Structures are given as C-alpha cells and as structure tokens.
Predict the 3D structure of the following.
Amino acid sequence: MIRLLAKPRDPLASIEHLAGEPVVQCAPVRPSGNSRVWRVVTRSGRVLAAKIYPDSMADPRPRLAREVAALRFLAGGSDWPFDIPSVLAFDEDAGVGLYSWLDGSGAGPATDRDLEQLALAIGAFTQVSRRAAAHTLTEAAEATLTAQELITQIRRREAALLAVAAGEPPLADLLRYDFAEALESGSRALERRYAAAGLSLTEDLPPGAAVLSPSDFGLHNCLRRPDGRLAFLDFEYFGWDDPVRLVTDVICHPAMALDADQRSRFLAVSAPVFQADPTFAVRLEAMAPLIALRWAMIVLNEFIPAHWRRRVEAGLSEPWADAKARQIHKARTLIALGRSFQTTRWT
C-alpha cells in the first residue's frame, strides 16, 4: 500500500504519482457539495476513482484518513457483504485518495428493494461493530452519543446561520419563527420522553449500544450496480454513533425524499435490528424530531459564504441566489417533518 508525503503541485500530478503511471483520461464524475470524484483511466488501461478532499485549511476534519480507515476496516472481514471501493493509494498532504472504480449508476428514487438493502446494511454495520478491531476507530464526525450533544449541535449551527441572517430576510424569518418554535417544542418533548424513561440527557449510551456508522447514510451515497445491488460510497464521517442516527439519517436526509409510507416500511425492516437495545425505541421517538431539525440547519449551509465557496470549488455551478432559495424550501420541508415526528409512534 502506497502512502506518499511529498505534495505534488496539482491534483493530476498527485493522481499520476499515486497511480505510478501517466493518466490519459480524467473526468469529474458529477458535481458534489464536498469532495470531488474523478474517473481516471491510466496509460495501461486501468480505470480508477480519484477523490480530492477539501483543503484542510478550509475544513480541518480528517476526511481522507477517516475514509481510508473505514474502507480498510470494512474490507477486513467477511461480515461486510456489500460492495465498497478498495483503497489503492493515498496522499494525505495533497488530500488525494485513489480507489478502485465501481461500475454503476446513481441509485435514484428509493424502491422497496432499496429500503430492504439499506436495512440489511444497518444490520451489517451492527455486526462489524462487534469486531475486536472496531474499538480502534474513533467517534463519527458530529456523533450524537447523548441527547444533549444533539441539541448543542443544532444550536451551534443555528448560531452560525444567525450570524449571516441580517442580510438574508428569508433565512432570518425561518430561524425566528418556524425553526425556533419547532426546536422549542421538540426539545421539551425529548426531555419529557427521556424523563419518563429514566434516561439522562447528558450520559453516553450504555456499553454495546453504539454502532459504527457512515454518519451520512442513504441512497445519495450509493451506486446501483448492474444487477440492482447497492454499492456503498463515502465514508468520510465514519465512526461510532447512536444507531438512532444511522436509522433516522435515512428517513430524514433530504436526498432520500421518502414519503410517509416508505418511512414506515423502512422502520419496520430496520428497527428490529436493535430490539435487544432496551432504550432504542424511546431514543428514536424522542430524537427523530430534532434530527430532522438538525438536517434543516445543515441544508442551510449554503447561506454561509465559506461553505458556499467549498461547494463551488467542488464543482457546483448554479447561481448562489437560486441555491439559497432551494435550500430554504428544503429546510421548511424538514421542519414540517420534524413537527410530524413529534406525534408519530413508530415502534
């Protein structure tokens, strides 16, 4: 396995350095809001995937190192049954990783089979969490191992948006009215449910309850293979987290766009994985409304200038005003979803 430290002058030079031969084709796969992925063909005919991660000065999170560790870990046993890229070489200083190429297409709208495969993958994440080597891995990026940490993350994101809201009337109105009311009522409901179950807002999960998670799980990070199976991509945030996050990321992520029936079907096939966890159902019902609000804050990142610059650098080209208008609509949808969760009984 190659690990190089000298930083080449440009990404293409780094890719060729890692591949060990000239590149004859190098094309972006699709615009992304984060890292850039290129399809690379070398002189000898190898087809590879090159991933260029955000500059560490703009985003200090160790995305490449975390993804490499995750992919190597998952590939290290027979209890992970799904296709994932193989790590071929990487250069942390240059922020470039080279991976095996997986044929497939965007997964598209969720089918019943997709939901079943996602539930099976959740079971597989739970299984690999029992490996002895699993405990060498760190917490997921922005893990929510306590309810209080979830609330703190939402408040932190709200503060960052409030800092730019003065010049953005639609954003200011959303934060001041719809979001503020939903967060207040959702927080009160969470506190009531935790108190009734004798749970602490600030104590970590009991031993054995946390699982390994991509922390951004859903079809948006999958490929549909030619035979219809899903291959899983993007492990930049991988690590230990509450399994409630693993499940609710699927039903809350705006890219999933599940309807109420699909959410119910997915919970019916995924929640039983955690039936041995005596507080999973309580945590799910209490935290899901706030996890939806957390996603509402995330989709509004486009209003933060530094975040928008990273989007543009990663290949997005639409006008900023259009992006902000679209994200306001997504946030309102997620806030409404969070409100609906407050009266939902799933288990």
